[in-house]
Amino acid sequence: MATSMVKQRLYGMRELKKRRRLVYVKNASFQSYIRKMLHMISDTMDASISEQALKIVDTIIMDLFMELATEAMNLMTAAYKRTLSEWEIQSAVIRKLPGEIAKHALCEGEKAKRMYINMHSQRRLDELGEDDSDG
C-alpha cells in the first residue's frame, strides 16, 4: 500500500515537471499568413513574392514576435507573476514599437480580441440553443 502511494507521488511529480517545461514549436513559420495577406492587399489577386523575399519577411516577423514575447516575459517576472496577461503584452508592444505603430498595433489587437470574444460567446449561445431543442 505504501509503495502504491509512492508511485502515485512520483507520477504526480513527473506530470508537474512536464507541465512546467516550456514547449517550443519547431519550424514555426508565418509564410502562409504572409501569402494570404499579400493576396488580400493585392487588387489583382495575382501578386506573388519570391521564396527568398518570403523567408526574409518571415524572419523579420519571427524576430519581432520573439522580442515582444521576451519583453512581456521580463515584465511578467519583474511583477512576480506566473501568468502572462493582456497588460504585459500591451506594455511590451508600447516599449518595443515606435509611437504611431504601437498605437495602431494596440487598436488592432483590441479589435481581434473583441472578435474572438464575440465569436466564442455566439458559439456558446448556439450550443445552449441546441441543448434546449433536444430536451
Order of helices and strands: HHHHH
Low-confidence stretches: none
Give the integer mean of the pLDDT values. 84
Helix content: over 70%
What class would the helix/strand composition place it in?
mainly alpha
* Shape, per Cα inertia axes: extended
Number of helices: 5
Number of strands: 0
**Biggest sheet record:** none
**What is the radius of gyration computed over CA atoms, rounded to a whole number of angstroms?**
22 Å
The proportion of residues in beta strands is under 5%
The N- and C-terminal alpha carbons lie at a distance of 46 Å
Can you walk through the features of this model?
This protein is mainly α. The protein is built from 5 helices and no strands. The chain has helices at 2-20, 31-41, 51-78, 86-96, 99-134. α3 crosses α4 (86-96) and α4 packs antiparallel against α5 (99-134). The longest helix is centred in the C-terminal third of the chain and has 36 residues, at 99-134. It is extended.
